[in-house]
Amino acid sequence: MRIALFDSGIGGISVLTEAVRQLPKEDFLYLADTLHVPYGSKPKEQVKQHILEAMKLIVQEPVKAVVIACNTATSIAIEELRSSMDIPVIGMEPSVKPAVEMSRSSGKRVLVLATPLTLRENKYNELVHRVDDMSIVDSLPLPELVEYCEALNFDPDEIKTYLRDKLSAYSLEQYGTVVLGCTHYPFYKRILAELLPANTRLVDGSRGTVKRLKDILEQGSLLNEYGQGDVHFLCTSHDEAYIHKMKKAYQIFLAQIEEPSIPE
Fold this sequence. Notes:
- By secondary structure, this protein is α/β, with parallel strands linked by helices.
- The chain has 2 domains: about 1-90 and about 205-255, Rossmann fold, CATH 3.40.50; about 95-205, Rossmann fold, CATH 3.40.50.
- It has 11 helices and 9 strands.
- It has helices at about 15-20, 45-60, 70-85, 95-105, 115-120, 120-130, 145-150, 155-165, 190-195, 205-220, 240-255, and strands at about 1-5, 30, 65-70, 90, 110-115, 135-140, 175-180, 200-205, 230-235.
- The strands form 2 sheets. A 5-stranded parallel β-sheet has the order 4-3-1-2-9. A 4-stranded parallel β-sheet has the order 6-5-7-8.
- It is globular.
- The two termini are about 35 Å apart.
């Protein structure tokens, strides 16, 4: 049986590559809700309905666990999904807690980059309230970065111009850690690293999410010893061109993580 990963588009491929790295003997199914991408700027109830509809496609497949590889989808629908599905459902949230812990000794602030909908949700704001006892967390929505990613636009000059404009209101020297609170954003990790002061940490939730997945599979004796890291791509629009795009994005991200690492 496969492990399913779900996102509105190709962003969750950043989580998929981490899952393949940590669980090389598992096989995977990746579903993108291409009929409704992007989620981050849409009304909450509308997005929730899209997520629940997409889950109907996933449960038709032989899967043993689902990773909601999307911070926005997690914030909106994770409790309902867990109560309605009889397999483990693992969600994501911006890595605010570890970012705050990293900043305790440095005196630096934390900047969270995410979609507008994630930043508006109670789940995110309750998380910040719970862990940000030093009031050092700031938030910045970057909805257009999702659109760039969906278009496979990785042109460094264009992306740098966009990010410089968005970051221009911030004194970047104040920040020791930047949280990538949308799974599309790690595709631009290297470009961000070039714009931020040296030694600024860039963190996202992929590693912790996949570790949680691995722990749950171990506890349920569900780990696969015979898989080969095979990935099957699906999308809600049943669009072969988009499936080709997902495969291309997967290869792009694999190539990126094989390059020398940046601070995390």
